[in-house]
Write a structure and sequence with these properties.
The chain is α/β, with parallel strands linked by helices. It has a domain at 1-84 and 211-261: Rossmann fold. It has 11 helices and 10 strands. The chain has helices spanning 47-54, 77-82, 100-105, 116-121, 123-144, 146-149, 161-173, 191-207, 220-226, 244-248, 251-256; strands at 7-18, 21-32, 36-40, 62-67, 70-71, 85-87, 179-183, 212-216, 229-234, 237-242. The chain has a 6-stranded mixed beta sheet with strand order 6-7-8-3-9-10, with helices on both faces. The protein has a 4-stranded antiparallel beta sheet with strand order 2-1-4-5, with helices on one face. Helix 7 packs parallel to helix 8. It is globular and about 65 Å long. The structure holds adenosine-5'-triphosphate. The site of adenosine-5'-triphosphate has 11 residues, from strand 2 and helix 1. One of its GO terms (cellular component) is plasma membrane. Residues 9-260 form the ABC transporter domain. This is ABC transporter ATP-binding protein. It comes from Polynucleobacter wuianus.
Length: 261
């Protein structure tokens, strides 16, 4: 039996410089289809920059990114999204006066018809399309977190932090990505809240499809529970790679990241 795992994403010699700062320094890494990969490292080690380069927000100074063998190095954010790669951000990027539905539906712009003629004049078709999207968002919420489904038309401003984080994750999931990039989902939440949201993600993953995840996270308990493999960065370079147990017993990781002498 061939047990070799296929790669969904590969970065080769990926480099990102901001003036004199080298945020990613000839980084080589790959992500396997269907795995949950933890991306760790001290503050400023290049984790979010990696996401920003992968998702087309920054253009790499040098190196390559390929997704299922296709070159995405110079792809725009929209092109990356069309390849079924979505992400969340460390800081909330929700529109607070809008409803849960609005904030999630916007994540499916691949399928939404945004043409002026369609939206202003094709009213029958528009209403059918609207009903379809409502059902799609409701179905995702019912799988993700049924209590939130009951709040689908409430403004986000009225909801607690944990629900806002769920909405951000649902916005990234509504387009049914193959690769989900989660940038520190525990930020601003308690330990228990984070555990709840992670359970919701695992639930969706087991019920809908086993999409691949790259998880940036400082909370080590979460990394231990969620990931199959981890990569540790320091100064934009990979300093360790392996299972949670392997990386926490790695001397360089202990000194650079875990604060042990
Ligand atoms: N847009 C930018 N302009 C200039 N420097 C930047 C920019 N984005 C990131 N950097 C720098 O690149 C380095 C890596 O930052 P990055 O945010 O990727 O680190 P990180 O590992 O995600 O950190 P944290 O864990 O604090 O989120 C830092 O020195 C940061 O100041």
């Amino acid at each position: 039996m061939n047990s070799a795992k296929s790669k969904i994403l590969e970065a080769s010699n990926l480099t990102m410089r901001f003036g004199g700062v080298t945020a990613l320094d000839s980084l080589n890494l790959h992500v396997n289809e269907g795995e949950v990969l933890g991306l760790l490292g001290p503050n400023g080690s290049g984790k979010t920059t990696f996401f920003n380069v992968i998702t087309g927000l920054y253009r790499a100074t040098a190196g390559n990114v390929s997704f299922r063998g296709q070159d995405l190095t110079d792809a725009s954010a929209q092109e990356v999204y069309l390849h079924a790669i979505t992400r969340t951000f460390q800081r909330s990027r929700l529109s607070l006066p809008l409803t849960v539905f609005d904030n999630i539906a916007i994540g499916d712009n691949r399928r939404l018809n945004t043409g002026l003629f369609f939206n202003l004049f094709a009213r029958d078709q528009f209403e059918k399309e609207y009903d379809r999207v409502v059902e799609q968002v409701r179905a995702l919420l019912l799988t993700f977190n049924p209590q939130l489904a009951a709040k689908i038309f409430e403004p986000v401003a009225s909801l607690p932090m944990i629900d806002r984080r769920r909405i951000e994750i649902c916005r990234a999931l509504i387009s049914e990505p193959d690769l989900l990039l989660l940038d520190e989902p525990s930020a601003g939440m308690t330990h228990d809240e984070t555990a709840e949201v992670m359970n919701d993600i695992l639930q969706v993953r087991s019920k809908i499809k086993p999409f691949t995840i790259i998880l940036i996270e400082h909370e080590m308990g979460l990394i231990q529970r969620m990931t199959e493999r981890c990569i540790v960065l320091n100064y934009g370079k990979k300093i360790a790679e392996g299972t949670y147990d392997e990386i926490v017993s790695n001397r360089e990781v202990q000194v650079a990241y875990l604060g042990q002498e």
